Amino acid sequence: MTLTLRQISFFVALTLASLTAGCARQSLESRAAGEVFDPHEGVNRSIHSFNLGVDRALFRPASNGYVAVVPPEIVTSFGLFSENLSMPGQAVNGLLQGDLPKTGLAISRLLINTVLGLGGLFDPASDFNIPRVDTDFGETLHVWGFGEGAYVELPFYGPSTTRDAVGVVADFFTNPITFARQNPADNIGVYAEIVRRMGDRGNYSATIDSILYESADSYAQARLIYLQNRRFELGGDQDSFEGVFGDPYSDPYEDIYAE
Fold first, then answer.
1. pLDDT digits (tens, 9 = 90+) for 123-132
2. Tens of pLDDT, residues 27-78
3. How far is it, in rounded angstroms, from Cα 118 to Cα 112?
4. Alpha-carbon span 111 to 141, nearest angstrom
5. For residue 73, what are the CA distances in angstroms to 41, 87, 109, 111?
6. Distance CA 123, CA 116 (A)
7. Out of the domains of life, which is the source (predicted)?
8. Which of 7-11, 26-30, 107-111, 142-146 comes out lowest in average pLDDT?
9. How many C-beta atoms lie closer than 10 Å to residue 81's C-beta?
10. pTM across the whole model
């Protein structure tokens, strides 16, 4: 696959933005306490406002229309297809994390769902009790000892951290499908991911709308949910370069329910 100048510029800009967001350093005390580190909140809020505008004008109505017109089983199949396309990259990340069982599961799901699931439109692997795999290069960096860095909000993409933003870029290059010489369509993985996100946005529209448009501060609410959920997924964040190890985080939604 040949990358266009626009694509290269986008990913380079994304990487530079991520690295810039990580220039400031969080104190050891606040990091050990698991506090939010958002040194560029002003810029992040501006991007959040931009993302809200895109969602309100384009993504939200398109997603709601998509799930209203397309039968639910087709929406599910398209989501499974996107998930299947991510398996090669997830297998690579499993290998980079030194997690051979995770790599094996990703490869097994890819082979079974591609062959028996009509290219990934169905999920026979789950019928064979093969667990789902959900990893990324952000988790790989976590395993390698990189701390999460500063909180950042990415244009169009949404909440992230310095580490996860770099992971978004790296995942594009670590998925072998991206560079397959006989791709059925250029950027098929990108298109499939957009359709998957439209399905999720439409199916969970009420919950997402309550966060983005009904909360007193949608930026702070989205930031809280993302960071707590991500830290919970990773079993607690750590930064071996600082020598700080935090305790495992509690249920990511506990504080939200308590409000």
1. 999 999 999 9
2. 666 666 668 899 999 999 999 999 999 999 999 999 999 999 999 999 999 9
3. 9
4. 27
5. 40, 21, 20, 22
6. 8
7. Bacteria
8. 7-11
9. 20
10. 0.79
Tens digit of each residue's pLDDT (9 = 90 or more) over 159-176 = 999 999 989 888 877 777
